[in-house]
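Anyone have tokens for Putative pentatricopeptide repeat-containing protein? Sequence:
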Amino acid sequence: MIHQSVEHNNLELGKQLFQSMPDRDVVSWNSMIGGFARIGQYQEALTWFHEMEFSGVSPNALTLLSTLSACASHGALDTGAWIHAYVDKNDMNRDGSLDSSLIDMYSKCGDIDKAVQIFEESTRRDLFTWTSIVCGLAMHGRGEKALHYFSKMKEAQVQPDDVTMVGVLSACAHAGLLDQGWWYFQSMEKVFGLVPKVEHYGGMVDLLGRMGCLKEAYDLIMGMPMEANEIIWGAFLSACRVHNNVELGEVAARRLLGLVPRDPWARVMLSNMYAEEAKWDRSMGLRKEIKKKGLKKSPGCSSIEVNGSVHGFLVGDNSHPCYTEINSMVEKIEKLMRL
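Reply: yep, here.
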């Protein structure tokens, strides 16, 4: 019943059923931890994992998979490293089934060198392990090394999937490898048997945009077999902003506003482009429109992990229980920096 409640996103009922149980085994704990991780409540998933520790119930492989996923998505490196140590101490990864999750966790938490180390020591180099290291390296801007591992993946005769190819195109974008990126994109279907999806078109738009090939990027978008989403038009608008192509920027902004009319970001970007071209009337017109419609950008967010707990901070937010102490320390640091 707990599993069914969690599967249908009724976590409150799941909590009530769990708390009413006289004996809570690893299966019931896994249902709760996995449920919170699945719906994106990663901090809650980690909290339940710590409670499971204190209860004396030992985690199994499924528990660790769910918790590592939560650590990766939440940036909880300390907790992820503790889980890794727990796995090694209890010899829970003999078959290498946790390798891809560990690589993914370390990559997303910022320790790409540790991710590479785990891959090199892995005896189970399947599709998921290869994909994790390729995407991890691409995420960290190490495009050429990611492509090196992709070449070794092909030598090992492991067939890539859609996710692998997203990582490959991202690697080409970070390394500035335009011709190679085009080749991989155009060969997806005939060489790897994969039909390019919207994510792959997005990767090519990003690559073309970074290289300043805005006309080619626009032609690619207009020739897509599916409708371009806000991510693709947003990437294209960003490229237009970087290379200050107002004409195509206007097109991208119109398309983006058609998809997300209440998002002020497109207006801000276009306003900045107008300002650089000294088109002050148009620039101020967009700023006034933002103010008139009461549009607000999503506040910037950062986070830090302290003693296994991840603390998030939003711009302008003073709700943190240690706000006064944090603000006082920031002021002290600013004074020291002025000396």
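The two ends are 62 Å apart (CA to CA).
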